[in-house]
Amino acid sequence: GAGVSQSPSNKVTEKGKDVELRCDPISGHTALYWYRQSLGQGLEFLIYFQGNSAPDKSGLPSDRFSAERTGGSVSTLTIQRTQQEDSAVYLCASSLVGWPTEQYFGPGTRLTVT
Amino acid sequence: DQQVKQNSPSLSVQEGRISILNCDYTNSMFDYFLWYKKYPAEGPTFLISISSIKDKNEDGRFTVFLNKSAKHLSLHIVPSQPGDSAVYFCAASVQGGSEKLVFGKGTKLTVNP
Fold first, then answer.
1. Do residues B67 and B55 make contact, with C-beta atoms less than 8 angstroms apart?
2. Cβ atoms within 10 A of the Cβ of B1, count?
3. Most CB contacts within 10 A, which of A106, B12, B14, B61?
4. What is the pLDDT of residues A51-78, one digit of tens each?
5. Is the CB of A91 less than 8 angstroms away from the CB of B46?
6. Is the dihedral of CA B98, A89, A43, A65 positive or negative?
7. Best of A29, A34, A36, A43 to disrupt the B interface by mutation (most B CBs within 10 Å)?
8. DSSP letter string over B21-83?
């Protein structure tokens, strides 16, 4: 079946502009995660959605970052007033609910802020 | 404070030999551990996992060992193949809550023909 898809694959934006990154999880996966990987670093957790529960936003680095998940499926990560330190690969993952379970990752969106 | 550490940024082995990738963690609450493999320009791919109630899990050429007292886990690949060349990430999570994964920085494995 189809895996996690993300768009765009690459995004170059000017400092100060807003960007939106999209994630389509695997069908039937109710849990959705956003991570980012900065150069030379491991993956850093950003936010988690599970069904209708309140999202876990504990990993968002600043209030310029927000995310929503509509209809329990597609998710959008929005970064307002982008800064150069926001340059990274943004990865989305989805999983089934239950313990333990593996997270399945999309190919990521490479964001470059100039 | 890095809770999951992969102290070797890179590892090079000969085809057919064993590859051993190591991972240390500091949070004793972690109860599930995973290894992911990542090729350039692709997302991480799940490889193998182990629950804290076990000390070994095997899947084909891949075996993960967990030493809870030492807070250490390792991934063994036998025999190594050139297609195994990738970045390997160790990750850990805690049951309950968001079950987010905490990742190490990765080890780049190169398997030479």
1. yes
2. 4
3. A106
4. 888 899 999 999 999 999 988 789 999 9
5. no
6. negative
7. A43
8. EEEEE--TT--EEEEEEE-TTS--EEEEEEETT-SEEEETTEEEEEETTTTEEEEEESS--GG
Task: Pick the residue from chain A with its C-alpha nearest to B35.
Answer: A102
For B8-62, what is each residue's pLDDT tens digit? 999 999 999 999 999 999 999 999 999 999 999 899 999 999 999 999 999 999 9
Q: Does the distance separating the beta carbons of B95 and A103 come in below 8 Å?
A: no
The model's pLDDT over B96-109, given as tens digits with 9 standing for 90+, comes to 767 789 999 999 99
Q: Which of A29, A46, A58 is nearest to A90 (CA)?
A: A46
Are the C-beta atoms of B9 and B107 separated by less than 8 Å?
yes
Cβ atoms of A106 and A3 within 8 Å: the answer is: yes
Q: Is A91 on the interface with B (CB under 8 A)?
A: yes
B78, two tokens: 């036998």
Among B67, B51, B44, B48, which residue's Cα sits nearest to residue B59?
B48
